[in-house]
Amino acid sequence: MLTIGELAAYAGVTVRAVRHYHAKGLLPEPARDHSGYRRYDAGAVVELIRIRTLAEAGVPLARVRELLQAGEQEFAAAVADIDRRLRAEIRQRQRHRERIARLTSGDGLALPREVVEYLDRLRALGIDERIVQAERDGWIPLAARSPERVPQWIARKREQLADPRLVGFYLTLSRALDRADDDPRLAELADELAAYLTRMADERGADYVDDLDVEPPLARLMDTRAFDAVPPARRLIELLEQRGWTGWTRLERLPSPTPRDVAP
């Protein structure tokens, strides 16, 4: 016969755990010797090991009691169910770990991986970090509001980014970030961008340019955020409006003026 300390040692638990299992009704109280001490047999060791194994697997103690009393088939089915639950929890924790790992880039907290990769591509092209941050801040509400559309939008952005002319626009804007609103190079940039947008709209259709389909209130909100981060962008948009285009987050072609709109 075993003392409570010997039982705990054989089963690989603490004496405190044995007493806890007694209190929860999981391990039956044994007979006591003439001195009043608990004495355990080999069956108690087996039972305690079963309890410990289930508890370490994350089975709630209330469920442990049910499983200990179950028949062989019922026990096997219950264990299989627990295994499925544990595997689901492992997958969820793995997703959490991947998300935490992305935090090291600074962009991964609120953005899907493909957007983070797109932002990294902008950086690799030498585009100013202030422009990249403005792009990031625009993507955050887009991804939160319409996550199912992000792959489609990113595919279009990648395609556009393969055009050296658009990359050139980004690089020119990068060089203009610290210039005054009346800097003539902003007007030159507006000319270049308007020509590029017009050419793309004529060649591939207006949908190729206005590809985000963002609600106007959200687009205006995102534009304001971009203008705060990249002040020359506001002046650039004013210049673009004079050249037939408007918007930053959502670029739109302005209707051509009718003869009556043109001053004599």
Structural summary, described in words:
- The chain has helices spanning 4-11, 15-23, 42-56, 61-69, 72-102, 113-124, 129-145, 150-161, 164-176, 184-204, 206-209, 216-229, 232-241; strands spanning 245-246, 252-253.
- The longest helix is centred in the first third of the chain and has 31 residues, at 72-102.
- Helix 9 (164-176) packs antiparallel against helix 10 (184-204).
- It contains 13 helices and two strands.
- It folds into two domains: 4-100, Orthogonal Bundle (Multidrug-efflux Transporter Regulator, Chain: A, Domain 2), CATH 1.10.1660.10; 106-256, no CATH class.
- It is rod-shaped and about 105 Å long.
- The chain has 264 residues and is mainly α.
Given helix and strand content, the structural type is mainly alpha
Share of β-strand residues: under 5%
List unreliable stretches of 5+ residues: 258-264
| Domains (count) | 2
What is the element string, with H for helices and E for strands?
HHHHHHHHHHHHHEE
- Overall shape: it is rod-shaped
Helix proportion:
55-70%
Mean pLDDT: 81
Q: Tell me the strand order in the biggest sheet.
A: 1-2
**Largest sheet entry:** 2 strands, antiparallel
Q: How many angstroms separate the termini?
A: 113 Å
Q: Count the helices. How many?
A: 13
Number of strands: 2
* Rg (CA only): 33 Å
